[in-house]
Request: fold
Amino acid sequence: MATQADAQELAALRALSASIGQSPHLTQAAGGNTSLKAGDTLWIKASGTWLKDALVDDIMVPVAMAPLLKAVEQRDRAADLPQGFTIAALNPRGLRPSIETTVHALMPQRVVLHVHCVDTISLAVQADGEAEVARRLDGIEWAYVPYFRPGLPLARGIAEKLRPGVDVLILGNHGLVVAAETVAGAELLLRRIRSLLARPAR
Ligand SMILES: [Zn+2]
Reply:
């Protein structure tokens, strides 16, 4: 069961998720997702739900993290079907976790935000996109992951690029991932990365 501290963070994450979901620069339709790790359980936005509804609807679904990460490590195609890892007893509505659940599980930090940030995508698709991102994110612990189909391929691509301390991922032709130990920390980091990437090109 979630502790009181977990419950408070989950409430904070729902508020932040609703705010992120209201920005068309960050998410479009049912895109983007957020998560919180509570012990061995990953609470992640359900597939097909909208972040903007996070305060008025139950959009978070509990997933057993350890077996999912094991599937990624073993290149088991079960990792492409994260609904197989939901914790049924905590999921009375039968929500299905996002295909991007493995992105969240792989980041060691408690709180993960994944957005299809327009500024990030438009910068990262340029011919020298990775070098330009590198200039702008100087001093940040970040990693660039080239485009892979979401699911097991993207999970493997991230696993290959992750190193200790990385809390920002630029996903080529896809979006942005930021991670922190608290919801407030993740919100600040998202704001900081967005402002660094949104500057006009030199
Ligand atoms: Zn995505």
Observations:
- The longest helix spans residues 4-21.
- The chain has seven helices and seven strands.
- Residues 100, 114, 116, 174-175 surround zinc ion (CB under 6 Å).
